[in-house]
Amino acid sequence: MTGWCGRILHVDLSSGEYRFEELDPDICWLWIGGKGLAGYYLFQEITRSWSDPEMPLVFMTGPLTGTLVPASGRICVMSKSPLTGAVGDCSVGGSLGWQIKKSGIDGIVITGRSKRLCGIEISDGNVSLEDAGRFAGAGTDELYSRLKEKGSVAATGPAAEHGVLFSSIMVDGTFAAGRGGLGLVSASKNLKYITVRGTGSVPVHDQEKLRSASEDIRRLVAATPALTGEHGLQKCGTAACYDLISSRRMMPTANFRKTCFHPASSMNSHAFSNEYKPKKYGCKACHILCKRIGEDGTHLPEFETMSHFSALIENDDLQTVVTANTICNETGMDTISAGATLACFSEISGEKLTPDRITGLLLDMAFGRGEGSELGYGSFRFAESKGCPFLSMSVKGMELPGYDPRGAYGMALGYITSTRGACHLRAYPISHEILRKPVATDRFSFAGKARIVKIAEDMNAVIDSLTACKFFFFGCSLEEYASAYSAVTGTETSAQDLLAAGERIYFRDRMMNAKCGFTSEDDDLPPRFFTEAGSSGDGIEISPLNREEFLETRSKYYRIRGLDRKGCPLQSKAEKLGLESLL
Fold first, then answer.
1. Predicted local confidence at residue 389, as pLDDT
2. DSSP code at position 24
3. Torsion of CA 312, 313, 316, 322, to 10 degrees
4. Is residue 140 included in any domain, yes or no?
5. Distance from C-alpha of 339 to C-alpha of 347, rounded to nearest angstrom
6. 98-136 tens-digit pLDDT
7. Which residues contact 77 (CB under 8 A, 6 or more apart)?
8. Can you say whether residue 545 is alpha, beta or left, with left for phi > 0 and alpha for psi between -120 and 50 degrees?
9. How far apart are alpha carbons 497 and 487 in whole angstroms?
10. CATH of the domain at 94
11. Are 329 and 274 in contact (CB under 8 A)?
């Protein structure tokens, strides 16, 4: 085998024992790696509670990780989501995936529950379980600074220890496996951190072909303004989206009651650059470097965090956005869910949140104090407890990110069909509806969106399995990455082969959610988006979504995906994909 190391590390925290599994090549060809291979280990256990000690917490690299392939340094973290009860997986950057592959393993499957707070330390395949009692209550920044000499660090913060349902696992201090509460799964196992250092190399079948494929990717990236242009990700980071979304009048504002935030021009990428004089950094194996750090060492927020801690909660203080981002990262909380929960709280209570109130509530969330202890369960449970669940802007219990669905109909569909809850990254319709890549589509139409979203979900599933960065696909396609995959593994593979694998992986996610009781009733948006208009202006009309057209498009998606009228997997489709034995 080349590309894969051929070994999976299994750690049982209950017994304190570990073992290495020799990876079956047939499993690699079928599930690839990352999201695909992680789901292979999760599938049989998915009906367990997320807090069951036997529920796996999986860290899985892809066959391209640790090679020359641009933007291939990411890793998939997967388990059952405490926030939603559905499949929970995150693609996260940093150097963790790289170090795992360099240590001679493809992934880590963690089960059991330690009797004491512990850490897992891995060095070139040597594994030890360490007492982490001295780190009880510690923030992720402290853990990273004290453990970084041991390699890459994945850690949880106080939020996970205090039961926050959207707590994160933070990698190398600032890269978040944020959505869905995977930090709480780690805390339920009494696992505080993982460190990994590797000095080996990843076997590659054809180095010359790999260099050629990698150069093709770099050329296409260089020719893509959305990535390398004056206002692209390389220049501005993900904050480049702030003005773009604002100008399209689809900036979620006041808990999605409005779609225009008038102080936006003073809260954008330019404002942050003037104030903090940032420099670039990013994931291993990436030359775009879309993250930003100020000259004083302050880690600056990315787009969704900027949006949710400004417009969504009607805050026009730049420093508060930065402070909120710092609190969430250091305590280990998902910024999207945290900001959206504050917005929900503000609407229900009628309270205009001041800067001090924002930061105070975030700290109370993370440490389970006062009002914050209730908010730590997320906006849906909070709104439900107040008798108004419809004021939680969420799908499957997961809060919507920074794109109002009334301003991009493909996003409206993508939010509800996402297997992990409201997520912009499963299909990322913003690519074609706003960035106009790879081709432009009418953002105020459902026409063709069912098939576009389905294909995009399949593509992004395989991207998360390789594991690569979705942003690079503004300029590249699966064709270039298929060439890289063939060069690394020695198996001639086409773009269509990869897309077929992505369909198989995504359909299996739907199968897992169906096993957990999810149906079409969970594939829906809050009623606000069908009854209330957004903030029209500047020649742009933001109307409520047409409920009938929305449901018709959902039905089309079900037919194309191979689901029945209730959104559950069909036997015939499972057989076509070779998954009938999993039903």
1. 98
2. P
3. -90
4. yes
5. 13
6. 999 999 999 999 999 999 999 999 999 899 999 999 999
7. 38, 57, 58, 59, 60, 89, 90, 92, 154, 169, 177, 182
8. beta
9. 15
10. 3.60.9.10
11. no
Location of structure tokens 């529920």: 55
- What pLDDT, on the 0 to 100 scale, is given for residue 125? 82
- Which residues span the domain enclosing 56? 7-197
Token pair listed for 164: 């926050």
**Predicted local confidence at residue 32, as pLDDT:** 97
The answer to whether the bond into 323 is cis (omega within 30° of 0) is no
How many domains does the chain fold into? 1
Q: Helix (H, G, I), strand (E, B), or coil: what is residue 78?
A: strand
Q: What is the pLDDT of residues 451-485, one digit of tens each?
A: 999 999 999 999 999 999 999 999 999 999 999 99
Of residues 582, 562, 559, the one with CA closest to residue 572: 562
What is the Cα–Cα distance from 199 to 217, expressed in whole angstroms?
Answer: 26
The whole-number pLDDT of residue 491 equals: 94
SS (H, E, C) 260-322: CCHHHHHCCHHHHHHHHCCEEECCCCCCCCCEEECCCCCECCCHHHHHHCCCCCCCCCHHHHH
Element (H, E) at 191: strand 191-197
- Structure-token match 């296409």, residue found: 220
Give the DSSP letter string of 388-435.
-GGGS-EETTEEP-SS-GGG-HHHHHHHHH-TTSS-STTT-THHHHTS
Question: Is residue 48 domain-resident?
Answer: yes
- How far is the C-alpha of 167 from the C-alpha of 181, rounded, in Å? 5
Amino acid letter, residue 255: N
Copy the structure tokens of residue 248: 């399209």
Token pair in block for residue 27: 């499993």
Distance separating alpha carbons of residues 239 and 158, to the nearest angstrom: 28
What ranges in 516-546 are assigned the alpha helix state H?
A: 528-531
Neighbour order of strands in the sheet with 87-92 = 17-22, 7-12, 107-111, 57-60, 75-80, 87-92
User: The tokens of 152 are what?
Assistant: 């890459």
Q: Is residue 107 part of a domain?
A: yes
Which residue has tokens 């942050």? 272
Query: Please, how many CA atoms are within 13 Å of residue 157, restricted to the half-sphere of its CB?
Result: 33
In a domain, 179, yes or no: yes
Pick left, alpha or beta for residue 537 (phi over 0 → left; psi -120 to 50 → alpha; otherwise beta): left
In whole angstroms, what is the distance from residue 161 CA to residue 376 CA?
12
3-state secondary structure of 459: helix
Q: Is the pTM of this model over 0.85?
A: yes
Q: Are 249 and 259 in contact (CB under 8 A)?
A: yes
Predicted pLDDT at 582: 84
Alpha carbons 460 and 91: distance in angstroms, whole number:
11
Q: Which residue has the tokens 């593994």?
A: 489
Q: At residue 252, what is the residue type?
A: P
Check if the beta carbon of residue 375 is closer than 8 Å to that of residue 345. Answer: yes
Let me know: does 181 contact 336? Beta carbons within 8 Å.
Answer: no
How far does CA 370 lie from the centroid of its chain?
29
Angstrom distance (rounded) from CA 556 to CA 217: 34
| Weakly modelled stretches of the chain, pLDDT under 70 | none
Query: Which residue type is seen at 49?
Result: S
Measure the CA–CA gap between 394 and 439, rounded to whole angstroms: 29
